[in-house]
Amino acid sequence: MKPFIFSKGDKMPKSADRELQAGLLKEIYELNARKRKLEDDIRSLDAANNSIQETAALRDIEAYKSQRPLHAKLPSH
To answer: Has this prediction a pTM greater than 0.70?
Structure first.
């Protein structure tokens, strides 16, 4: 779309104004759709990352448990 250049006092033709508004609305719609997709992608990555962290934490806990003696002696008083 070619930009309109008017000198002071000139008015934009109504058809050009409608075209500009339609173009802006379309651009807003497309940007909002991209934003929603990016937000969905971020949520998916967060869920995957949380799952990986949880799995790693459980693996660490199991490794710690396996290194402890089964019957730890309690200090006697």
So the answer is: no
